[in-house]
Amino acid sequence: MMKTLLGTAAAAALVAGGAHAAGHLPFNEGEGAFNWDSLAAIADAYNLEGETITMTGPWTGVEKEKVDIVLNYFEEATGATVNYSGSDSFEQDIVISARSGSAPNIAVFPQPGLAADLAKQGFLTPMPEGTADWVKDNFAAGSSWVDLGTYADPDGNDQLYGMFYRVDLKSLVWYSPTAFDEAGYDIPETMEELKELTDQIVEDGGTPWCIGLGSGAATGWPATDWVEDLMLRTQEPAVYDQWVSNEMKFDDPKVVEAIEEFGYFAKNDTYVQGGAQAVATTDFRDSPNGLFAIPPECYMHRQASFIPAFFPEGTAMGDDADFFYFPAYEGKDLGKPVLGAGTLFGITNPSDATNALIEYFKTPIAHELWMAQGGFLTAHAGVNLDNYADESSKAQGEILQNASTFRFDASDLMPSEIGAGAFWTGMVDYVTGASAGDVATAIQERWDSIQ
């Protein structure tokens, strides 16, 4: 493959010509809102003719097609070949390949926990020097992303092993703009205003919230997201981290307070569609349907960015459904924390070409190229938000850009017997009558038993 310098007329001809026609490079160089200069800088910096870089991760199907397009531009700019393979059993596959000495150059981890385990075992290589400072300076809430990608090496020393790329957003409240407009409700800017709105809806004869924890064998998980969001709104980020690692016990009063804040909304019969007793039995996929009833059966639903997949067919985003940031307490001065998840790159087989690909993933355009295809959010502060495929994604991107703190879903970071076990079932016990203190104590006792 000929090395392509995208700042030249020849590059423009290549992109606009046969490669573009074939769908290999669907966006014409120099057109649109993309940061083409950042790609030209990669082309100027690297000549990787004959080099091959291997990647593996959890992206399959349509997601693989989208990331392949992102990688195609790197290939055209540098002359390298990048082979990405997706797997539904990535977590098992990467462990096997790492231990057998056949790991790819880069692994795409859907959770920090597995990356941390492999780093501790010596199967990851630290990110290139200077990456931590770059992330701090170029990602919204940059220090948070450095913390999430920093793990102990085999000697117990902390090093940056992960760089985040694609992000999921959970701190959202969904609502019907039509219902809000007809009732004269404004979007709350603070948690205090959210509670005032909750009471106002009740006074007006409506039901503020639809909440459902049902999810088959995973029943209870939606409540863990509530508690995690409320931990970030009642405590400093460092306290959240101590809770995740169990340095601060699960039955600490700070955790109990967050559980009870969830109960403020979920255990009040007048606040929840069907009454508090319906929370544990309503399936999370059915829960938001009340937003779209006429008259509304509920006005608000706190859930992550994926929930529109379960809205009624034909729901028009922006008209029939929209969202706002799950607000922070004005009186606690904790900024604008955001809860979510995300995928990160880890180096499992180092090479100079691999480092060049990491440099590419630092560029705005490496994010914008997937933004424009849809189904992608990023915390990169240098991207042009106009590249998002739709207004909903753009608005979520703005929430990420405005975040003062980002923290990963706590239950995903805890041992599975806790985060995907005792925490889930404990929340069901709580909404069906147990006290927050008793639930937290039972979860901690379970945690003690596995240590």
Give a structural overview.
By secondary structure, the protein is of the alpha/beta class. The radius of gyration is 23 Å and the shape is globular. The N and C termini lie far apart (53 Å). It has 19 helices and eleven strands. Helices cover 44% and strands 12% of the residues. The chain has helices at 9-16, 18-21, 36-45, 61-78, 90-100, 112-120, 131-138, 142-149, 177-183, 191-203, 221-234, 237-245, 253-266, 352-362, 364-371, 391-401, 410-413, 416-431, 436-450, and strands at residues 52-57, 81-86, 106-109, 150-152, 158-160, 162-169, 172-175, 301-302, 322-325, 337-347, 405-408. Strand 1 (52-57), helix 4 and strand 2 form a beta-alpha-beta unit. Helix 3 packs across helix 4 (61-78), helix 7 runs antiparallel to helix 8 and helix 11 (221-234) packs across helix 13 (253-266). The strands form three sheets. Strands 1, 2, 3, 6, 10 and 11 form a six-stranded mixed β-sheet that branches. A three-stranded antiparallel β-sheet has the order 8-7-9.
